[in-house]
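Page 47, continued from p. 46.
Same chain as before, 857 aa.
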Amino acid sequence: MSIESSNVVDPTTATAEGFTLSRRGLLGGVGAGLALTALPGSLVARAADGDVVLVSDGQPRCAVVIAADAPAGDLKTLNAAATLIVDTVKAATGVTLSVVRGEPTGLTPLYVGHRGARTTDACTVDGLARDGFCAEYVPAAVTLLGQGSSGTWIATLDFTERIVGAAHLLPGPGGTAVPSLPAVRTAPSLVRQEPDFADRRIYSLGTGTEYTHSNPDAVFGSRLKLFMESRYSHAMTLVYPPSVYGETIPEIYPVRDGVRRIPTSDTLNANWNPRWQDPITIQPAVDYVVAQLAEPDATGWVGMGMNDNGGYSDDTKALGLIDSDGLFSLSDVFCDWLNKVAAGVEAAVGHQDFHLGFLAYNDIRSAPTFDLHPSLVPHITRDLFGWTSEDLAEHDKQLIAGWAARAGKLGWWDYAWGNPIMIPRLYHQAQQRALQYLRDHDVTSVFVEMDQNFGDGSKAALYAKLLWDVDLDVMAARDEWCRRTAGDAGGPHLQAFDQLWNDFWTTIMPTTEYARGGKGMSYFWYFDCDYLNHVSNDLIDTSQAHLDAALAATTTEGESQRVTIVHRQHEYYRASVRSYDRTPTTPADFGEAVEQLQQLAGEVDERVAFANRRVELLEEFKSDPILRHGAGGPASGLGWNGWPLKSAWQLGGMMHEQGRRSGAAGLWQTAERLVRETTSDEVRGWLRLLLDIAEGRTENIAVNGDFSAGTIDPWIIDTASGWQGGEPSLSTEVVRNGPASLRIVGPTTGGGVRQRVPAKPGFLRSSYWFRATPTENPLGNVTNTWLIFDAAGKRIALMRGESKALETDIGSWREITMLRNLPEGTAEVECYMSYFRFAAQTELHVADISYTQTTDA
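Result:
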């Protein structure tokens, strides 16, 4: 961000001498540590005689000016900008400014979007990038001039933040904090800014000038200086709509297992991709791009990303290569097609002044072996959480270097969730380090997939500020966000809450299964619950106490509204943590086991209440556009009833192994006594499950789980579209307890081992033993998923478990389990062990699979 400034005075900290504003202080004043809750009463008296006065003595001293000849296409932005100025000044002072077309009489003009008669020659946007702006404050006039309408809007936001003292913190009625001011005035100054990243978007927030949008997330996003022209998303269905080409050029569409797979819908942008290697695909794509560039609202960008989830033709897959990580890659096939399309477009339009954006994603994650046409802009898809770890960051740097060697400029798609993760996910300094590196290595566009639910507090606002000025003091900005959100008294408590989770994600999580398993993937698996194993009750309760204190300390309605948003989401987080079945510690002896049993029995009712409460909260949130969750909870497979099933299996297993003799007798006696004494149905049900396990009343309902039948049947082995390593087979050389193991050879994008079996409501434990061979590229992970069906074959539930990284204890047999209670109406269950993105030369062996339920006997 380039800035020129002179003697810029913050209205809440000004003195007669004024001060020179730093680069960081231009960002809404947050980085400068401003105190914007009230204006000192002596300020106006101390202000210099040459100040620019906009409001004083309860009267307007300026008028907002829109040019009489403003282009019709700019009026939406100009009117929104004028409205934002009027609303912000009125909120601060109670004074309403007028909006005029042409020079005002008797008032200082505040020109919006144009140079007026009193603007000096120094105010220019020449040389600034799109979204850049120049703001001039002289006694004769104020001029807010942008490089394009987007720059004008951002100049307006800068005015509301730096001159009036507004802070755009969260969505909703109280989301913007505006100080109470007796006057609006500032010293003469000239400010020029442009963003560090040309394109900036945080999904699902709005962009541009959606100031009057009905969705509060859209309005909030419009106040964060977010603009994006680049296009890059999944587009193959738009390029090749089946209704147009399904009959006329069917050769475009993939052939799998000898069958032509023509999509049935013109809106399906997943599970299929065209046969890029066929020359017949080129001209329709050229025609599509040329038509898009000719649209009245064209920006010069056309998205040409691959469709999601593969679905490649068999003859396309056959052309795949192995990239430097040992993973299957179609980058050469896809980019060769793109090069030919771009050359065709260039020939048709007679120039290269266009951009075809695409996603460097999954099987196109690594750079091709040749240079790209100058119009092609790859957007690397990678979760920047990885920059909490040096080796994961180094892996990303290698990806960047590969693409930078082949393309003139780059984009980035970050996954900064947010929902459906069930605790705040914050890592501010790592985000900043990553973005600084991207800025310095030709990345000009950043799209952030956040699906924000605002339980993360400061994350969205700080991320937006980093996209504008990546060198700001991010932790000072965080502290100021907390103070402006919760007030002087509540701010320190909100800061403690934020720091707790920033520390958690940057010191504890980088070495966990959750982090290590995401090395070869675009994102860290957002349905993986492993992180909850690392959140103790004390930690989540401490977090809750910080928010309780912050809310109690608020002194204004706006502060209360803002903190309540974070506080309400944290209710869901706390209910999730307090009800989750974390992996228990192993008792050192039977005495400790008895203590664990008694403690667990005393907690069951509370855990169940928390499990029920999290479902109630999600239902309550549905009607609130700020609190709503786009994914997560039981509907997304993240449901449980609160019983500590892992502990029941562990303690019951100890009792079963030892019987009633010696030290185990006390454990048996305690369990049986608690069953007799409890008045709680939930506690009794959990204890009876423990005793069923202890007494051996269980059965394995999986068929041929040890592969003793000498065949893979009836197991179904799903192979994803990137499969390259050969057919799954049985191995008698690498075994555990049974006579054989299932052998899966990399590289693979992913797949799964599954079996559908009859089941009944109640307890189920799935167990897969797996072993990965040591290699130079120990990438990938495995995870568990269940599909539950009723007697009619209708799916009635989805359940997801934790993931494990293949690199952890590589070469050793490890167990991945999932324990849940199946709902009423269950007649069948299909259990998956899914595997994701492991490399060539890696062999994954799976053995001794069991699906355990209790028996009726």
